[in-house]
Amino acid sequence: MPSLLEALERKYFAECEFENANEPELHKRDDLPNDFTVTKCGGRMEFSIFIPRLSPLTSVPELLVLNDCDIDCAGDFDSIREKCQRVRELDLAQNKLKDWQEVFHMLRHMPRIEFLNLSKNQLMSPLSTLHEAPTVNLKNLVLNGTYLDWMCIDVLLQNLPVLQELHLSLNNYRAVLIDTAQEVELQQQKQADNESATASHSDCQIIHDGDTEVEEDSVSGCGECQAARKYTKAHPTLKTLHFTGNPIEQWQEICRLGRLFPALESLVLADCPIKSLKDEAEPSTMSNDSSTASTESHKYFPSLKLLNLSSAKMNSWADIDELAKYSQLQNLRVKHWPLWESLECTEHERRQLLIARLPNVAMLNGGGLISSDERIDAERAFIRYYMDKPENERPARYAELLAVHGRLDPLVNVNLKPDKRVKVVFTYNDVSESRFVDIYLTVNDLKAKLEKLINLPPNKMRLFYLDQDYKEFGPEEMRYPNKQLYSYNIQSGDEIIIDAKK
């Protein structure tokens, strides 16, 4: 398998070749420019011009893409430093890197690098504490599909002081096993407030079944997770975290990310099966991790501006009300929730209900900026939606908007659809009778129904339509058998005259 140096030389440092270099019988003429030569072809003279390929690069460009090249090591360090001195972005996704030391050797010899993509590399070797940071300039690190353990990620974070964006998607994380010392203090405070609770209920619940004792994991997580969790320092420089596609279900685990990255501005949690933004534990059985209760979880994200929760498993408007507590949240994506499938309303009405509940959100589900007119219309529609519902079904937001817009009159329900059935006068042999008729019937269908009424076969029947408002123009023969009745603009009170063919 090639090294990094061999892969980049193969891609960027090929020897300069000239086309037509092996053409036979090339002759130089003094009366032609230096770039021209003459080739003898029988009795003809052909002129050729040499167009050299680009000369070899002395160093690679700032963006170095070497994904899926089977790279497993760095190569000669001096050559890497010489040729990669301008590199700022390095893409090494889908290679064969296994040893972190090889990665660090690359970084140490690329002093200007700011972006590194290591997705889908099998970097499973344990990473101990680094004696020195491999680079102090790295701002964006992509580790999707690497399945790194949290201890390894913590070591990386501690040695990347200016890291601003981190990608940890598709790593099969079910829990966040690092947290800040802040949680320890909160646990101690909670334990002091609940001295009456027994210590056996802090981590697990013991159920007595006959002579057998069965331990159940508490809501906050099993004892193994508690034992494996490491407490570390926060990383105040990180502003963007991509966490897509990890099978994490509890919001209190996401709150640990908020404590780890207190300056977080963008958090992408698409395709994470999170069930609720509220703590599902009861106060009496709540474990030491109850510091992430729903009333406080928004405090761990004081700077969050963008949140993507698409394809979560949430099924309650209470979760939307929790999002309204995030004061800085401006851009929100909440597509493909089970909640939307259970609502009996149009997509436009659903958008209005969301906008009205989220006063701080300026961009919803990837659409344009929410204008002031759209927000006012949404808030008024929200009031009308809940005004006829029982008081116990009205959210707290209803009273807030009622104080702003006052009580509103219900909208008049105007139905502009044409009547499906109209009452028409049928006349045959000076006998008239009023009957309802479906305006979506064709002329042939109408004749078939009239056959039972007047005992006249359809092929012997002629129909004439007489508009009650334009009787002076006389009747119009309905001569087209597949024409539907509504196309004649038939209204109640109009007349259809039946005549037998002679």
UniProtKB/TrEMBL annotation:
Domain of life: Eukaryota
Pfam families tied to this protein: Ubiquitin_2 (PF14560)
Residue ranges occupied by any Ubiquitin-like domain in the UniProt entry: 430-498
Cross-referenced CDD domains: Ubl_TBCEL (cd17045)
Protein name as it appears in the record: Tubulin-specific chaperone cofactor E-like protein
Native organism: Drosophila lebanonensis
